[in-house]
Amino acid sequence: VNRFDPLELSRLMRLGGPIVAASLLHLTVNATDIVMSGRYGSSDLAGVALATAIVGPINALLWGTLSGITPIVAQRFGAGAGAASSYIARQGVWIGIALSGVAMVLIANGHRLIGLIAAGNSVDATIVSVGYLQSVMWGLPGFALYSVLRSTSEGLGRTKPAVVAAVVMVVLNAALNYVFIFGRLGAPEMGGVGCGVATAIVNWSAAATMAIVVRWQNFLPPDFFRRKLILDLKQMAEITRVGFPIGLATFVEWGVFALVAICLSRFGEAAVAAHSIATNINGLTFMVPHALGMAAAIRVGHQVGQRDYAGAKTTGDTVLIVTLVFAAAMAVLLLGVREPLAALYTPAPDVQFIATRVFVFVALYQFIDNTQVTALGTLRGYKDTRGPMGLVMVAYWLVALPVALSLGFGWWTGNPMGI
């Protein structure tokens, strides 16, 4: 029997509220890129969307793997060994350096993938995609450092520093987009490529902000900043064992979305742009249950560290019930305001026409997607990540994608069937 506990809900909200805010602000960064590049030109919007479809899965693998730090730190903290967090974080830095190096190589060669499959896009859109990739990859090491610091602080139950970093990201990204896209303050007019330059700078700024806040609040032991980065292969193996299945599962999910966006490029720029808008809207609503799942992972990690398994089950039940209520509210809202939403993103009538119809499927998708992400978050609190990884791979690649392709790229029909 599922048990709803109002007291546990209040604890989840205290943890999850800042995570929701930070996650929504992160999506605002992506939405700003889409809106501002779309205002510059439809080819730039399509180019940014196509490049993001390549960068997104790689970022997801990087972030997901490093987020394995969170349940490890949470369980140590629950067991009264929170002082070990800085040591765990330092080993995470080594993993982040290695992963970001590999990611830079992959993104540097992303133009080969675009050249092979972006046949439906104009030459201008393809040029924007390649320029975006060549610019954004330089921010990946900064993104890795940000991910390590955020995952560590959240494992300790400190979720507010990520909000501070996210606010800096939103403000700085909008300002830099304005400068580099439209060529202001003496900068070259780069169009959609300017979004990539802005994102690279923003990623390093986020890492610096997290480091400053963590050091200033002094909740992470100061030896993180003072001691040398000495390799501990055993600790790195634990982080990888917990985190890599999370990263791979997230990569698989993002990868399917990316593949669909790339395949849709054969139907023209309007189809790519509409899919990008629908994905962004779904991402905005998804961030709330995603954040609740992250909060559940922290709470369950603390409870497992304390050996309070009954409390961990109550946390899982509570977050699931709240998620279903939220999904119902979002579905009604999306159905009611789909036309104004499409108009907010783009003035192009053909893109609006496609997007408003896709929003119907996005509304129904809320119940399925939101439920699975909170369940996954709860399992991560137990450091149970391998089983969910297998389920995600089967759901997306063996069910959702084949159904979508059989329906003529009917992604927003096939995806719910897989999940």
UniProtKB/TrEMBL annotation:
GO biological process, one term: monoatomic ion transport
GO cellular component: plasma membrane
CDD domains: MATE_NorM_like
InterPro entries per record: MATE_fam, MATE_MdtK, MdtK-like
Residues spanning the membrane: 12-29, 49-73, 93-114, 126-149, 161-181, 201-221, 242-267, 273-298, 319-337, 389-412
Keywords: Antiport, Cell membrane, Ion transport, Membrane, Transmembrane, Transmembrane helix, Transport
Pfam families: MatE
Compartment(s) of residence: Cell membrane
Alphabetized GO MF terms: antiporter activity; xenobiotic transmembrane transporter activity
Membrane topology of the entry: Multi-pass membrane protein
Alphabetical list of PANTHER family matching this protein: FMN_FAD EXPORTER YEEO-RELATED (PTHR43298:SF2), MULTIDRUG RESISTANCE PROTEIN NORM-RELATED (PTHR43298)
Name of the protein in question: Multidrug-efflux transporter
